[in-house]
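Hi R.,

Here's the chain you asked about this morning:
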Amino acid sequence: MGFPIYRPRRLRATENLRSMIRETELSVKDLIYPLFVVPGIGVKNEIESLPGNYHWSLDRLPEVLQEISELGIPAVILFGIPSYKNAVGSSAWDAEEPVQQACRLIKNTYPELVVVTDACLCEYTEHGHCGVLENGCTVNNDETLPLLAKIAVSHAQAGADVIAPSNMMDGYVKVMREALDEAGFSNVSLMAYSAKYASAYYGPFRAAADSTPSAGDRKGYQMDPGNSDEALREVALDIEEGADIVMVKPALAFMDIISRVKETFNRPLCVYNVSGEYAMVKAAAAKGWIDEQRIVMETMLGFKRAGAKMIITYHALDVAKWLLGK
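And here is the predicted structure, written out as tokens:
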């Protein structure tokens, strides 16, 4: 049945009609907001590479937590800048470092807020790689695994609801799941960075988290951007090892991967709208070249349409305000 009997424009005539047939909806409840916590007192420093986002010391963190709670954003993901670094990144499982302290603070003051913690070593090692280095340039996968287990247990002890390992080591989910269960944290979930690509979109984050490798790159353990089938194999492995939630990162340039993962696996799917994607929008908006709100909301809908259940995004506060009409 074609024109003139069928006229699709009839159902686009008014906002109410469009809303009635809209296939994909975006909600505040889809959002996870990244927070960068740092040592010190009185720190609220805007991150140059991520305008509108800040480094927070523990004493000032309640300021943004109150806003997050009032907007109804259900979850945050914590990234920490440690007070010290060494070759193995032992500050990552130190109970007195910023991430662990932030977990305790949040669960004491906003217990309903879901606390996700990024579990990796790149922010905590002197060399900026995601594991133990051998020969100064290669990450030793199997020597790294016990350290990741320590991080997971430390975060769970501090009150984290979800541990999000982002290191892309082989076997990482299995080791962390076993460690959590043995320590009595069988109810703590794992959100695996299952399909994490060796992407150029991470630059602003690495500046914000002080995690740029001092030498070499991460192509030996993060995925090649040209691969699609490999992503499905990686996701399958993580599910088999105990991942409760799987992730595709970055999101914008990998919509096809999001769609394939959604269609193939019966697991909650998170996407990470990463720092480079955010920074490009902010830079273009500052120049007046784009309508920031429309671009961001269209992008969020694209993630949902591709199959995402959850979206980690630096735009979360703005998106929530726009959705709520604030």
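One quick note: The two ends are 43 Å apart (CA to CA).

Cheers,
M.
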